[in-house]
Amino acid sequence: MWNNAKDRMLRERATEVIPGGMYGHQSVALMPEDTPQFFIKAEGTRITDVDGNVYIDFMCAYGPNLLGYNHPDVMRAVSDQQSRIDASTGPSPLIVDLAEAMVSMISHADWAMFCKNGSDATMMALMIARAYRGKRKVLVARKAYHGSMPWSTPRPAGVVDEDRAHVIYFDYGDPQSLKDAVVSADGDLAGIFATPYRHDVFADQSMPDREYAQVARDLADEHDALLIVDDVRAGFRVTRDCTWESIGVRPDLSAWGKVLGNGQPISALMGNNRARDAASQIYATGSYWFAAVPMAAALETLRIIRETKYLEDMHRIGKAFRDGLNAQAKDIGIGVRCTGPETLPMLQFEDDPDFRVCYGFCRAAMKRGVYLSPYHNMFTNAAMTETDIAQTLEATGAAFEEIKSNRASLQPSTKVMAMTGS
Amino acid sequence: MWNNAKDRMLRERATEVIPGGMYGHQSVALMPEDTPQFFIKAEGTRITDVDGNVYIDFMCAYGPNLLGYNHPDVMRAVSDQQSRIDASTGPSPLIVDLAEAMVSMISHADWAMFCKNGSDATMMALMIARAYRGKRKVLVARKAYHGSMPWSTPRPAGVVDEDRAHVIYFDYGDPQSLKDAVVSADGDLAGIFATPYRHDVFADQSMPDREYAQVARDLADEHDALLIVDDVRAGFRVTRDCTWESIGVRPDLSAWGKVLGNGQPISALMGNNRARDAASQIYATGSYWFAAVPMAAALETLRIIRETKYLEDMHRIGKAFRDGLNAQAKDIGIGVRCTGPETLPMLQFEDDPDFRVCYGFCRAAMKRGVYLSPYHNMFTNAAMTETDIAQTLEATGAAFEEIKSNRASLQPSTKVMAMTGS
């Protein structure tokens, strides 16, 4: 029987020694009531919370879990490398091997720089775009997330106007809005940040549009600015290359993270020769950026990406999940919208402006052992099987029944209402 | 016989796929000619380069190596934790244990937030100082390093004026300069960044001054701003608390990193109750910030810090190293200045304005198996023994002899001259 007694006790202790009890994207403040905050085990497709409840995990560590938690081949590479060298006074030769491996796989790229956070990679992209021709303005899609540094964090606390003085916003996927933004840059255009596809929180996802992407490429060329694809979230879950390679448009820079080491801490900025000189001029670094263990994990993860049909498997399984949800919703007469790539599913409900139905549904699924998000895109991993999806659909089927019967009593979350303005 | 054939070959490969061949603080561009770039082994006090040359390492991964590379107790904690959970969809209970452990050890602190880079911790400090009362100006000591984000990176490429619009510089250790800077903040003072002691590159270090620290504390109080000690570099190498605790002045925030997990990737921002509400308002996060393995490593590192005489050992060994260098220099008639805490030694030469003698000395020591830095403070670790120092002094003795005989032929590095303006 599901319970959360230990989680509640730990949250009380946490409130004493962590501001707000928890912070960042893994705070459950925006998740349904009773969502567990603390976990003690992660293996394959499953996570176990501190009370011993086991979940099929459709958040995958918010991305990093691509091949299954504790993947044996990746962990063997980790443990072999740990016995040799990790963080030390210089990098190991693996940094060269890994840069070569990434360059060979990412079509637009001629070089690589490795870092820790996705935010490090997008920050380096910003700095390189500005170093490139000494221009300052960067175009960013409204509501797109490019990390939590002051120039891009979604909350205003601690941010000053100057942090965004040279950020110009446009509407994602709208070529005219992009053109207008370029005009307002007034000859001072350094770069264009293009999310590979729209994956904002609390919104349907939309797939990349070739015309929009090509306009972004053409505008960057015309104005001698750099085009940047932020693939931190979607990288290697859509294609075995930069996500925009699938629509035939190549950026100058692409930011990577999350899946790169299947959970080991590493991110990367990839770039072409046009951006190489600017990249060699900036100073960006971190205490653990050159550690060898995450690079060993990344080399093994890339090998698996190249040599196995992990991606085809993920698409098949993701489609089974989506088809199953759609069929259950139709059967029961509840309207849902499943958007985005099958490997990064987003679930929203019709007639649910304040998200109360989606929250109720995810809470009901959670208590039946399936961890979903009602506001953030989800993630699948390559360890998931048809059996996992069958088990998942058993839980979601019951969750649909539950919200059908108690829909009238569902209440919206005040935190979500504050966040979405609904 | 020392050689670097493989290192040179790897550097050529690296030049193809990494901008400038290497980047960040572990690039050897500013190190003496022939300093190896790539390492294949780190164990205890020793690092082995890609050509098989073994060095006693006085850089300690630029800080993280506090207890010796691959410390058995820390690595046991790492491997135990790896079998359970690392980066996942939520933190493990270890985040609460670790916050409690840090709060119990850092006298000024009531709470903790964990992150990856030292730069993450200083950036959060900046944001929290601004969120605290909605004020904007931060005071930073000229030439002090607080990470490589645009507001603080030591190189101008990719930085725009607005990144530092609200940064006011003062001279470290000079109370009047600090007072003048506060006046120029003109009622808009958010925070004062105070390095625990002066540890700029290419300069003698100076120890913290109680009067200066107290003035900084008083000014912060008077103007309802936050006082921040950046202990990323010096933390737990001077005392088992915030470095300024040793002079009796408590900041509101302190930034930590490097040694915290003895090499496992983790950093932290510690704060008091005055700063708690502001800390709970900012949004700062990263894909791997809540991973459990580095927290397990940090808990074990903190246990060793509390329960062993690692610090007394390090001071004794550091003093033996310093005394030995001073005696050798005196014997041979070369003037040197050894500055800073014994656990973070800085070595400079008299009559060496362009650093050619120091570079020649460090290069000669390197080729004899001792890895030193001629421009950055060095680090000792708790695994070093009297035997290591005896072996080190054998190499440095020969290095002093070598530079005495070839001093006239030593040439300054053009890169260093460009960097120092000498």
SSE blueprint and pairings:
Two copies of one chain form a homodimer.
Chain A: H1 5-17, E1 39-43, E2 46-49, E3 54-57, H2 72-82, H3 94-105, E4 111-115, H4 118-133, E5 137-141, E6 167-170, H5 175-185, E7 189-194, H6 210-222, E8 226-230, E9 253-256, E10 267-271, H7 276-281, H8 292-307, H9 310-332, E11 336-339, E12 346-349, H10 356-366, E13 370-371, H11 386-406, H12 414-420
Parallel strand pairs in A: 3-13, 5-6, 5-7, 7-8, 8-9
Antiparallel strand pairs in A: 1-2, 2-3, 4-10, 9-10, 11-12
Organism (chains A, B): Hwanghaeella grinnelliae
GO molecular function (chains A, B): pyridoxal phosphate binding; transaminase activity
Keywords (chains A, B): Aminotransferase, Pyridoxal phosphate, Transferase
